[in-house]
Amino acid sequence: MRWMITGAGGLLGTDLTELLRVTPGMWVVPFARSELDLRDADAVAWAVRAARPDVVVNCGAWTNVDEAENREQEALAINGTAVSVLARVAAELGARLIQLSTDYVFDGSGRDPYRESAPTGPINAYGRTKLAGERAALEHGHHVVRTAWLYGAHGRSFARTMVGLEGSRQTVSVVDDQFGQPTWTGDLAERIVQLGRADAPPGVYHGTSAGRTTWYDYAREIFTLLGADPGRVEPIPSTALCRPAPRPANSLLAHGNWRAAGLPPMRDWSTALHEAWPALLTSWSARVVSQAVGVGGE
Question: Is residue 17 within 8 Å of 5, Cβ to Cβ?
Fold first, then answer.
């Protein structure tokens, strides 16, 4: 089975590419951002036709939420227009597209986890552009995987930021009124491969861990894993952060469509974090050392 990955150098794309390379029967054609400009429709169409994939996974995206408020058309070119090209060309070739999306397509005003069929209503430009990409993928009969609160061995994440702040600040202020599901990219990569190999119906799937927490409690868990005093994490309301783009208060996603397709949803976020932690910490430390001596880097 041939796979094409866009955004292959990012947080999820790196893990997905590495997983496919060690999975028997899989052949992967990865495109990092420097190798494929998603704003170039002709280049995107050419890449898909050249790769001749059975499955295309679009991990590429404009992810700067606050910048999108002032540059929405630029974000839309990557998060919406490029997806239209990927979806159309993949359909022409008989390939399946798995489009990565986000909890930000919801307004976050609900109290319960959002079902896959729940009405969307983004409250910021980033969410609007990602919703445009979802609609393009679904229009051509493809898959959409919404995810949120990602962390992994590669790239930036809230977890990695907290590790840095623990070593540089006496106290850290973190919002305690936003709910979500921290999700390990290794777990999500496994589910994406399962989805690509299965005869699962097209539509929306929610790719987040089980359970629920707040950014505040998540940060306290990270401090605990570091052997630091979680009391150094101080709770603050979202209103204390002056950000250009509003964030949804509820980012909880339900996972019914995995079960309906005969595929397992992901495990609890805390279990995953504890299991991944030694490898994550080792990876992050190695990258810090390599950057200090001028080798590698992000």
Answer: yes
CB atoms within 10 A of CB 280: 22
Band of residue 208 on the pLDDT scale cut at 50, 70, 90: very high
Whichever domain contains 196, its CATH number is 3.40.50.720
The token pair that represents 145 in the structure block? 């995987």
**Whether the predicted pLDDT of 285 surpasses 80:** no
The Cα 21–Cα 75 span in angstroms is: 30
CA 140 to CA 86: how far, in whole Å? 10
Mean pLDDT of 237-251: 95
How many domains does the chain fold into?
A: 1
Residues acting as catalytic residues:
126
| Domain contains 222 | no
Closest CA to 27 of 7, 52, 8: 52
What value does the mean pLDDT take over residues 71-80? 98
Looking at the predicted structure, is the pLDDT value of residue 88 above 90?
yes
Using CA atoms, how far apart are residues 103 and 147, in angstroms rounded to an integer?
A: 6
Token pair for residue 153? 């061995």
Q: Does residue 93 fall inside a structural domain?
A: yes
Across-strand partners of 175? 236
Which pair of structure tokens corresponds to residue 136? 């393009």
The DSSP annotation for 216-250 comes to HHHHHHHHHHTT--GGGEEEE-GGGS--SS---SB
Angle at 198 between CA 192 and CA 203, to 5 degrees: 70
Tens digit of each residue's pLDDT (9 = 90 or more) over 118-172: 999 999 999 999 999 999 999 999 999 999 999 999 989 999 999 999 999 999 9
